[in-house]
Write a structure and sequence with these properties.
Elements lengths: L5 H12 L5 E4 L6 H10 L4 E6 L2 H11 L6 E5 L13 E7 L15 H14 E11 L6 H13 L6 E6 L10 E7 L11
Parallel strand pairs: 1-2, 1-4, 2-3, 4-5
Antiparallel strand pairs: 5-7, 6-7
Helix pairs in contact: 4-5
Protein name: Putative rRNA methylase
Keywords: Methyltransferase, Transferase
Organism: Bhargavaea ginsengi
């Protein structure tokens, strides 16, 4: 696989997994880039559930979607409530952790507990072979705690249920984002955790 930025890798993997007509989730709508990508990927028969806790993010997402806005449901709620909005099977989900870019406000950030609960819920909703991609940005205040909580959770998943991988560039300065992926290997409603 060609090396590249975390988000580019996430999109390449989603292109291999998600099929037209499926329901997918953008767990962190932000400025709408992933929502638009997913709306294009699933096509006119697909459905994108885009979550954010900031109305400004959903407004930006709606603007970015333009004519494709009818393919997405923009949800002003925490991503850990995904099961409340989902009917049926989910083909895939994308997360970009951290704060809303280009706003200057770095106080509203994704949180360890809600992120882990959202991933856990989505694993139960995913189709067999479905994928969750999580771009982890850990250079902001609290980002290290969220990173550690996600990795600790991922490490406790049974390998017979889920393949978890971490993709990162190791020769970059600062805190470059890295990608964690969760691929569902078999049918289950809730993943089992190791003790």
């Amino acid at each position: 696989m060609e090396l590249g930025r975390a988000l580019a890798q996430a999109r390449k993997l989603m292109e291999r997994t998600v099929r037209p007509g499926e329901t997918v989730v953008d767990a962190t709508a932000g400025n709408g880039h992933d929502t638009l990508f997913l709306a294009e990927l699933t096509g006119p028969e697909g459905r994108v559930l885009a979550f954010d806790i900031q109305q400004a993010a959903l407004n930006a997402t709606r603007t970015r979607l333009g004519k494709l806005a009818e393919r997405a449901e923009l949800i002003l709620d925490s991503h850990d409530r995904v099961a409340d909005y989902t009917e049926g099977v989910v083909g895939g989900a994308m997360f970009n952790l951290g704060f809303l870019p280009n706003t200057g406000d770095r106080t509203v950030v994704t949180k360890p507990d809600t992120t882990v609960r959202a991933v856990h819920a989505l694993l139960g909703l995913l189709k067999k072979g479905g994928l969750i991609t999580v771009c982890v940005y850990d250079g902001h205040e609290g980002g290290d705690l969220e990173r550690d909580a996600l990795i600790a959770y991922a490490s406790r998943l049974r390998e017979s249920d889920v393949d978890v991988a971490r993709y990162e560039l190791i020769n970059q300065k600062g805190h470059p984002p890295f990608l964690v992926t969760f691929e569902k290997k078999k049918e289950f409603s809730k993943p089992e955790l190791l003790d």
